[in-house]
Amino acid sequence: MIKHYIKVAIRLIKRSFLFSSINMLGFVLGMTAAFLIYLWIVDELTFEDFHRNRDSVYRVIAVDRKDGGEMKESAYTVAPLSKALREEFPQMENATFVLNFGMLNLHSGANLIEAKYTFVDTAFFDMFSFPVIAGDPALMKKYPQQIVLAESTAKKLFGDSPAVGKDVTCLFLGQVHRYKVAAVLKVPRKSHIRFEVLLSEQAYFEPLSWDFAEGTNVYIQLRKGAVLSEADRKAMGRTWINQREDGRPLEFQPLKDIHLHTSFKDPSVDNYGNMSQIWLFMALALLIIFMGAFNFTTLSTARASLRYKEIGVRKVTGAKRKMLITQFLSESLVQAFLSLVLALALTELLLPFFNRFVGKDIVLLFNWQTMLFILFGIIGVGSLAGAFPAFYMSSFNPLLAFKGGKATGRKGTLIKGLVCVQFVIAITMLFSTSVVFRQLHYLQNADLGLDKEDMVVVDCDVFELMAYYGNQGIDDYRQEVMKNPNVGNVAGGVDLSNYLRGHKTEEAVFSWMGENGQVDSLKMVGVVGDGNFMKTLGVTLLKGESFGADKNAYMDGTYQKESPVVINETAWKMMQVKDPVGMVVQNKGWFGETARIVGVVKDFHFQSLREEVKPAYIYYSRQLLNTMYIKISPENKAGTLKFLKEKYEEMRPDNVFSYRFFSDALNLNYAHEQQLSRMFLIFTVLAIVVAMMGVLGLVALATAQRTKEIGIRKVNGAHSDRIVRMFCREYMIWVGIAFVVACPVGYLLMVRWLSNFAYQTPISWWLFPLAGLIILLITFLTVVAQTWRAASRNPVESLRYE
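Structure for ABC transporter permease, as requested:
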């Protein structure tokens, strides 16, 4: 019986090839979109899956609870915490720490690269399962001078030559540190731990104590079968506090939750996901695949009148309604299966382009999850698409069928409703895509209160560090750079692109005697800069003055008692003082306990536009001066960059010249929005194509069913354009109804999405009619293309057999 149903279904496809092709193309595009989104979602949900112990590993989170209920979380703790947790709690199978030290040089013969140095303890390789390309990482446990390289680092340093066993050196603090490569590891893209050079804790440049917390992440591994109870969490959470009074309570985050469920900013991780995007694209996949199913439902229902006699004959010859329902469902299931095969082929073909768009390396694997998804796709989509036509056509009265009975009003209402739903989805997605792109453009081009164009950012932390050892420092490099006529202003400061990406910022609480005679206080974010910082970056001074360009003023005692600071406009407003210039404020920071406000600057964005501008102060700190901002002429950029590189290498031949343009660095802050906009564009185009395939099928069917009517109208003097307008009018009305529904839906969705940003592009009114007009125009062209051919035919052909 099943074989019979399949034969009949295939025969129907051959007999109505045009409509079956349109049905299947809608299925194919819908399933392809669903497959691509499914693969993307699976990729997002399987971060860290390559680790054998992924289900028992947790990251330690430090919690800082402020007065008023505010809670601040951080992945930064202290290295000795791992040993303390491992020794004090029997539930612990293991514990380790990861200390990201920073960028240093790495030599091998004449080859020199810059790489990120990461220090770990001996338990690291027991807890984490990074794939081994070559060598034995366990050697690092026995021999502190053995190091492990990431595969990308090994290729940069050694090319295609084997790296294991090779000697490498690092020049740091005036000393040469020698190492031997023990192993080369692959760092999967789906790992939040990113390293280039791994070193043993014993190779660190100073003892790691409870006082050293910068850049340290701690991880724990529970014993098999152990569970973290609330009592365990509380006891373990006090470990840091038990060691130091200023320690913080601890929480424990499962390793598999890090990618999608981290609510705080972590500068050590640059590949966080977003669970809201998972739900968003899951909804998009369902909508697009439903659109393909709607096409099948509308066309099958509309074509029911062509099968009246077939249904009548089947019923007269004894076919029960159950058999007819099975027959019609089998037709949709066969088409769904064939569409699925084509969709899989199309998915495989589009994957390289899709990966390029979303920045991934997804592959189509036929595991049990994928096969289950495919099975659901065939049965679910096929049944969804074929259910109404099957029940509708099987209910026909055979007597009416032989008389050529007409469709009921319910059928016409369903067809119009489904077409309108498709138009609503298409208009909403097109409108949403335009808003996402406008917001991304706004984020990348908003006035930050900073001069970001033609601004070269050079890493110079090594310069200032080496100056302590009698070598040339950042000021010496500045003097050399200024000799080039294509170089304008030059300033030293902190790397603001790191601040904008949510990296760690210095904060201090300032207190002062208020005008009411009581002590007021305000927490501000510190931004390090020298005397040229504000001028070079174009920060506008509103009141007072900047601190001097001469760094010696900070070192010779001029500001020994009162270090100068410049606050921003937001800080001035929140201080609620008439004139802050000249005020003495108390603070415990890098540069002393007392500071004097010497100026006020216009607000500038030192953090992402997702957040409002916070109160901030600009100050000088030689210890934190790690970045140079060089304003260059737009002419001969290549020559200027070559000059900067040559001067750098003359003064620091043991280091790599590392630079970036400030504007490019700032745009990296919005990688998630860029990915979202690209994916929205892809699936909006697919949704529009699927919708138009449905329109094309309905128009083709309508012209076929009304061929004789068109011929009669032409014989009676109707022009082709009038006949075309007759067909177009109905679809234009449907688009109009869909536009009315889509406007509030799209507006509410985008208002909700834009609420994630403190600074938003306005939702311009013209975006609504623009989206509607684009869908209207595409629909009009689709209808005209199909109806013009029918309307232009010789009426004799359609009336020949009448």
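The first helix runs from residue 2 to 15.
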